[in-house]
Amino acid sequence: MSLLKRRPEITLLAPPAIVAGRSFGVRARLDCPEPLPVDGVSIELLGTGVWMTSSQYGRHRNTMPFARWVARPVRERRELSAGEHEYPVTFALPPDVPGSFVGRHLSIEWTVRVRVDIPWWPDARAAFDLWVVASPHVDPPPPRVLASSTDGPRGRKPYAEVSLGSSALDPGGQLQGRVALSNTAHNDYRALRFTLVAVQSVPGLLSPFTSHEARARWVVPLSAPAEDEPIAFSLRLPADLVPAFETQALSLKWFLEVKVEITWATNLELWIPVVVRPGSVLEQAPTAAPLAVGSDRLALVWAEAARRSGYELRAGELVREQPQGRRSLRREHQGRKGLRLRAEATFRDLDLGLRAERGRLRCRDPEQARVLGEHTDALADACPVQEADDERIVCVLDDSGTRVESVAGLAERFEALWQAMWLARDELPPPGDMAEAVPWFRAAAQRLGGELDVASMDVWGVRNEIPYSLQTQWDDDGTLARTMLEVRPSLPIDARWHQRWTGEGNPAPMPEGLAVLVEGSQGLHIDAAAIRVFLPPGRERLDPHVDRLEGMLEVARRLSGQGPGYR
Known about the structure:
This protein has 567 residues and is an alpha+beta fold. The chain folds into four domains: 9-133, Immunoglobulin-like, CATH 2.60.40; 145-276, Immunoglobulin-like (Sandwich); 294-427, Yope Regulator, Chain: A; 432-559, Yope Regulator, Chain: A (2-Layer Sandwich). 16% of the residues lie in helices and 44% in strands. The chain contains six helices and 37 strands. It has a seven-stranded antiparallel sheet with strand order 31-32-33-34-37-36-35, covered by helices on one side. Helix 2 packs antiparallel against helix 3 (404-427). The longest helix is centred in the C-terminal third of the chain and has 24 residues, at 404-427. The radius of gyration is 35 Å and the shape is elongated. The chain starts with 8 loop residues before the first strand and ends in an 8-residue tail after the last helix.
């Protein structure tokens, strides 16, 4: 026998997934290149809890075994001949052991370790990872209704009730439920945000350390919800969820956080304990299919990004539409520079002089710019604005859009910037040189039955199904320029009336009753959609402007077929 011994190559044959509470077999295979004496062969099944800690020297991996079984198919000295030798063993896992889990701070690992004891020579060792699924016997908690306050709705305070179809979650399945909101007339409910939270507990220096990890997020936008009317939701759950567990020092619990976002009020938060049921496990391993590549993989990436961000996937781009405007995210080709991601929001004219300045949002009036910056600067730093005007904002990311993280991350950051911009929009003061005119504009809005937008000093409304507006306009340098009166008939305006008159010379023929309303104005613009009259800027009593606008509404009413027509 040679003094130099060649250790055998060790491989392991094991099931692709193992269910706790059931027996399973593994086979250790030793491939000996030459005859080899051994003192024994041991096969060990080990369950280990792993958690990470940080110090000034970096991150550290900590381990704590919680389960161990050892089988010794070879106990006495013998000589193995050259070639392959197989040693089958069977293990029986108790039903209460935790399954495999990978979290941000805590992981559960199952390992089979094979050791060949070679006399007077370093032993041959090998370790193989197993995937263990928790026992399928889980009793779901009974259904119940959770409320934001045990006292029910009180006064004008926000209030919400939540119920789940089942508190037992199936990985990859649907979580369905309902939310009802009260005092909707006194609270501006903006959105429902759901977060599936994994609460992980690991040993700490003095006491256990608990971390909260969001494993999935969903957003359901709200638009004028009705009082106490149930709002149904259906959430697609991730497929990699595992049941909760608790060992002597480690634990995992699941909660669904429901957050109701409210403007000018404290958000409502409800934490609902839930149970994760084990996913189905096939007794035999299925035939492996090739992984998706190219366009197939890209379609899966964008579908997953849409799910994570709460957007809708349409024709290869992520889209979200609300009454305030439309947001989209798509891949954009730059020629030689390749592909990049472009996030764009379009909305009605804000009339603020909105612009992009060093990646941040700014507007015409200094005080309005300050308020806008307080709400959006931090978010714009994470999602720089490349282009902006009163009808759109654009952010780009130098990324080809082939990874879920980059696509979903940009969508989430852009959505946060969008929401912050609209929140700031509702809080903007009037322009500095128009603050004293606010009472006159409120009186004009009341007389017209419209709504005053204080930030832009515009009055909007609809009368007899005809939209109208009284808009204050500024020059590029921020100087107050003029007031525009606009009506939009419900039928297209005949081409014979179309014109653009700038106040010089005589205007072209116009519909009956409009000529007297144009006298003394600075211009007239008629196209198929609208009639616009331009006047000197209004700062004080706006009764003459309101008189003209009401006359224009009468003209528009006849053009819409609601009165005597024009020949």
